[in-house]
Amino acid sequence: MMKQLPDSAVTLLWVVFGFVVVGGLTALTGSRMVADIIIHVSILGLFAVSLNILVGYTGLVSFGHAMFFASGAYGFGLMMQSGGFSIPFALVLSMLISAAISLVVGYICLKTREIYFAFLTLAIQMLFYSSLLSWVDLTGGDQGLTGGFDKPAFMGIDLGNQNHLFLFILFVSIVSLGVLWHITKTPFGYTLRMIRDNATRVEAFGLNVNRYRLAAFVIASSAASVAGALMCVYVSAAYPNFGYWTMSGEAIFMIMLGGLNSFLGPLVGAAILTLLNHWITAYTELYGLVLGTIILIYVLVLRQGLLDMVLGKWRVRQSRLRTSELPISAVKSETYK
């Protein structure tokens, strides 16, 4: 009898499988456009999944999540422009700085509840955005961190090479998603679901709900900062709109489009929104009108995320198959329970 693999090993296997499949398929197509779309989906998908750690798993709606996407991008960009930093070190350090910021912001915002939490995160994000615009000497103001920066090679990886850049961003995105997925499968992740469903009952068990929420806030913000740093690597710049409220709104759109009840739902939503953006801008100048209409019809018809709907139907089908395989007496017994 085979021994069941631990969750960490399963996560590692999925990470390797995802990297090989996506990287291999892109290499086979040899299309620069396909590679660009996958990069955008990977970065924005990681950003949306990180927000769903708060929304879908913890029950906290944050309208200020883009602040940490921007802090990761600006922190990484400033370190690379100053020189003397390797890319992996700058990536990790920008994540740690964002984690420290999120610890303070989360502590303040979690003093409130529900809708007040959402609007307080939005207010702090707009203060951060205003700082990006006004602190011209450091951030470049409304022009952002432009001018590019050197990308020194490390461990045989040269990000000046487009193939290396694609594989690096894809690898870091998949590893980050793997870490988040593993967290949701730990006792900590299941406790977050309990808090989402009934925080009062969790408090009755003697657990400190605010500590769990704060930990989830820091984890989600740190993952968002990694996504921001990867975007900075990709475009060799950081812009104020990374920290604008519309960026947080896009992440919420992605969650709604893909589904908030499944881990990869936001990633599916990111793919949908990215492809819609690519398709609509290619065929019409009425971008906002067409995209808004499509999303409106999508929401009214499906009334749930795409992946949530697919998985829901699959579970119903599996349940019917299991029921059909039971003996007639067992089916009758289940019916009259």
UniProtKB/TrEMBL annotation:
<feature type="transmembrane region" description="Helical">
    <location>
        <begin position="251"/>
        <end position="274"/>
    </location>
</feature>
<dbReference type="Pfam" id="PF02653">
    <property type="entry name" value="BPD_transp_2"/>
</dbReference>
<feature type="transmembrane region" description="Helical">
    <location>
        <begin position="37"/>
        <end position="55"/>
    </location>
</feature>
<feature type="transmembrane region" description="Helical">
    <location>
        <begin position="214"/>
        <end position="239"/>
    </location>
</feature>
<keyword id="KW-1003">Cell membrane</keyword>
<protein>
    <submittedName>
        <fullName>Branched-chain amino acid ABC transporter permease</fullName>
    </submittedName>
</protein>
<dbReference type="GO" id="GO:0005886">
    <property type="term" value="C:plasma membrane"/>
</dbReference>
<feature type="transmembrane region" description="Helical">
    <location>
        <begin position="165"/>
        <end position="184"/>
    </location>
</feature>
<feature type="transmembrane region" description="Helical">
    <location>
        <begin position="286"/>
        <end position="306"/>
    </location>
</feature>
<keyword id="KW-0812">Transmembrane</keyword>
<dbReference type="InterPro" id="IPR001851">
    <property type="entry name" value="ABC_transp_permease"/>
</dbReference>
<feature type="transmembrane region" description="Helical">
    <location>
        <begin position="12"/>
        <end position="31"/>
    </location>
</feature>
<feature type="transmembrane region" description="Helical">
    <location>
        <begin position="115"/>
        <end position="136"/>
    </location>
</feature>
<keyword id="KW-1133">Transmembrane helix</keyword>
<feature type="transmembrane region" description="Helical">
    <location>
        <begin position="85"/>
        <end position="108"/>
    </location>
</feature>
<dbReference type="InterPro" id="IPR043428">
    <property type="entry name" value="LivM-like"/>
</dbReference>
<keyword id="KW-0472">Membrane</keyword>
<dbReference type="GO" id="GO:0015658">
    <property type="term" value="F:branched-chain amino acid transmembrane transporter activity"/>
</dbReference>
